[in-house]
Every structure is written in C-alpha cells, then in structure tokens.
Amino acid sequence: MSQELSRTTIVAHGTVGLPMAVFGYPLAIWIPAHYSGGLGISLATVGTILMIARLSDVITDPLMGEMSDRWRTRFGRRKPWLFVGTPVMMTSVYFLFVPPEEVGMFYFLFWLAAFFIGSTMIVLPHRAWGAELSPDYHQRSRVTAAREIYVLVGLMVAAAVPMIVEINADGGSGVAEVFLTIWNDAIGAFSGDFGDKTVVDRATLTGPVLEGLAISVMVALPICAMIALVMVKEPAAAPTEKRPSFRDGLKLVAKNGPMMRVLIIAVLVYLGESSRNAVSLFFIRDIVGVPTIGAAYFFYFIAGFAAIPFWLWLGRKVGKHRAFLGTLITVALVSTANLFLDYGDYLVFFLLFVVKGFCFGGLQFLPLAMIADVVDVDSARSGGKRAGTYFAFLGFSEKIAIAFGTGAALNVVGLLGFDPAGGVAASSDAGVLSLRLVYCMGPVLFYGLAMRLIWNYPLTPARHARLRERLERRNARLAGTAKG
User: What pLDDT, in 10s, does the model give residues 409-436?
Assistant: First the structure.
C-alpha cells in the first residue's frame, strides 16, 4: 500500500500550472494580432510560423521526455529541467510579448522557438514528476486536480489582464472602478442590457495587453518553480530499474492498447476544443452580439475552478473514463443548444457558457490522470519508469490537434465568406452558417467519435488495482533480491 501524499506536497507541486496557463490565451488571441497588425508582418506569415512552431514539438516533446526519463542527477530526473527551463521561459516571454517597434519574421520565429522550447522543458518533466509522486489510482487524480486548479487560476489571470486594460482604455481608473465595470458587464449579460458601452478597438491595445501578460508570467513563474523545487521531493528511481532503448520504448508504447486509445481520445477532444476556440470570439461577438467577452470568460473559468472537486469525486465514484464521458456528453449538449441562439440571446448564452465552464476542469485533468495510470501498463511490461515519454506523446498529440484544429476552422470559415472585420453584415450567408456549424457542431462531431472509444475503455479502477498489486509484488521481490 503506497503512502498517502500530504496536502502540502500536492499543493506545492501544482503551483507550476499557474504561470504555464497564462501564455495560452495571448498565443491564440493577442500575439497574431500584434505581430500582423501592430508590427506589420503578414497574417499568413504569422499563422504559418505559429503552425510550424507547434508541429516542431513532434520532435522536441519525445526528445525531452526521453532525456528526462534517462538523466540522473543528485537532485533527481525532473527537477533540473524545471530549474533550467524557468529562465529560458522568462527570457523568451519578455522578448516575444514585448518586442521592439520594428521587428521582422526572423525575430518572431527565433523567440517563438525559444518560447516553445522553454515550455517543453518545464511542462513535460513537471507532468511526469506528478505521475511519479504516487502509484495510487485516486491519489494521482488529486495531484492532477491540484495542478489543474492552478491552471484555471492562471487562465482567470490571463482573462482578467486584457479585460482590465480594455476597461482602463475606455476611461476606467483604479481597482474599485475596474471591478465595478466587471460587475456591470456581468449584470448586463444576464439582463440583456449593456447600455451605451463603448467597444474598444483591440488593435490599439495589443501592446499593453501583452506587456501585462508578460509581467504576470515573469513574476509568477520563478516563485511557483521555487515552491515546487524546495517543498516537493522527487521519488528516486529504483536501482534495479530496466531502461529499454528508445526504439524498444516506442514499440512498447505502440503495443500499449490503453495508451493508444487515450491518445486517440485526446486528439479527438483537442480537435473539437481547438476548432471551437479558434472562432469563439467571432461567435460571441457577431452571432450572439455580446459587446465584451471579458466578463464571460472570467465567470467561465470561475465555474471551471469550482467544478474540480466534483469531477474528482465523480472519477473516484464511477471511474475516470466514465466521468470523462460525462463531461463530453454535457459539452456536446451545450454546443448543440448554442446552434439555436440568435442575436441578443445574452442570458441563455451566459447560462450555457457557465455550464461549459463547469465541464472545463473535467476536460483538462481527467485525460492527464488516465495517462498516469496507463504508465503502469508499460511498467508491468518493460520493468521501467518512463512517464516522461508517455506525457511527451500526449503533449505533442495535443499540439498537433490544436495546430490542425485551429487552422482548419479558420480556413473553412474564412473561405466560405465570413468577414471577421465587418461581422455578419459584411459576410456571406454561407460564411455565417459555417461559423455557427464550426463553433457548435464541430465539437459534437469529434466528441461523438471519442465517446465511442471511452465507452468500453479497458483500464477500469478494478483492473488498475490488480495491476498495481502485481507491480508491488514484483518490486518487493526485486528489493529482496537486491538485499540478498
């Protein structure tokens, strides 16, 4: 029986999720607008560079996973990468988010590449470290849930910074007035009356927004990294651990049925989420008519934060895969309901959006917890501990899905005639319809394919318990042999 992890260990390890969540929002929204509109690089070039950078992780992610699995230091296998990756990330965030006025394509490509390398050096070893803190099925859920709570806090920070910048640009000043405006936005959404709210031109705010987000990352990342490095012990690798070659490891991963199934499920879910996220701003602003999305996303992430204990409880009661199935069914129903919204349906939209936010926590942490269990299947077959390699596969699968999901959604909507500058009035009927279908039915399509794979997922809690008993008996036998 494994020793129960202390709450301090779980909370301290999860802190790194906060700063790493902040940069996802600017990459999707503010970076392309700033480099193409504010700095003069063509939007096509910016999009191509972003996609190439994402796809390059196909190489860097498994390489980092393998290196962190095999590297041995007196401080452990995972901690050194977090220590080194922190200054790399801070430097790249500053130069990428706060560029000088005149920059070119090479500048953008160089610092974006450094940014993704720093992210890989931190995220992959940190996830693998979390999976190794405990072999217990439910304690791993607690570790993952704690990390995702910090991720949700980071996302709320990422949503609040642009909102505060926009409010100040619109004449607001001071903390009290900022929060009063946020409250008025929320009340306006639920009452359907935003009054004479001025719509701020986002093109003039990309610089201040990115600077605020850069400061947030550069302050939070070293503090959170130090908390994890100092307060959390890394489990030592067993001296009898077998270390298969990289090629043999790939073969074992390919033969790991639950692993391959989780990867396919994750790709399908990320395709659905990324296709929706790529056009969400246009749907909220132009189809429903909400003049500001700041308050919407703020309450969205609050709902996701509050729901983490529920999904943790449900995963314990019915199994992680069944809880994950429940999140997909709920989100698919919400997406289908959005298809029937018209301009001015603020109240219904916000209610549906909060329900979707409630499911966000389950969509985030349940697949990660399932991957942690899948690692045990590999350990039973290979005799090794290679969580880094497994999370690397999940990481680059996620990034491939996001790259292609985002690109496909924007191309379909744009080619069929939707005009993001002029909105519905300047768009063709086919373009407006495609925007509705991509936002609402795209997730339903991909989630439906994923549900079929989750329905008969083989690694249930009972089977995982038997697998852990087998591994513990073998480890005890190897420890007795080593003593002898």
Answer: 777 877 787 776 666 887 889 988 988 9
Angle at 84 between CA 79 and CA 90, to 5 degrees: 125
**How far is residue 214's CA from residue 95's CA, in Å, rounded to a whole number?**
9
- Gap between the Cα atoms of 395 and 263, Å rounded: 10
Domain residue ranges in the chain:
15-234+241-467
- Angle of helix 320-338 relative to helix 429-455, nearest 10 degrees, comes to 160
Q: How far apart are CA 42 and CA 317, in angstroms?
A: 51
Could you list the beta-strand ranges (E) of 187-332: none
Beta bridge partners of 423: 419
Cα–Cα distance measured from residue 374 to residue 162, given in angstroms and rounded to the nearest whole number:
39
**Residue/partner pairs of 427-436 with CB below 8 Å, 24 or more apart:** 432/287, 435/279, 435/282, 435/283, 435/286, 435/287, 436/283, 436/287, 436/339
For residue 444, give the H/E element and its range: helix 429-455
Q: What is the DSSP string of 9-33?
A: HHHHHHTTHHHHHHTHHHHHTHHHH
pLDDT in tens, 148-165: 778 878 888 888 887 777
Q: Rounded to 5 degrees, what are φ and ψ at 423?
A: 75, -155
Cβ-count burial of 105 within 10 angstroms (0-12 exposed, 13-18 middle, 19+ buried)?
middle
Q: Measured between alpha carbons, how far is 294 from 299 in angstroms, rounded to an integer?
A: 9
- Residue 45's SS3 state is helix
Q: What is the CA radius of gyration of the chain?
A: 23
pLDDT at 96 over 80: yes
CATH superfamily of 15-234+241-467: MFS general substrate transporter like domains (1.20.1250.20)
pTM attached to this predicted model: 0.71
Contact 300, 328 (CB under 8 A): no
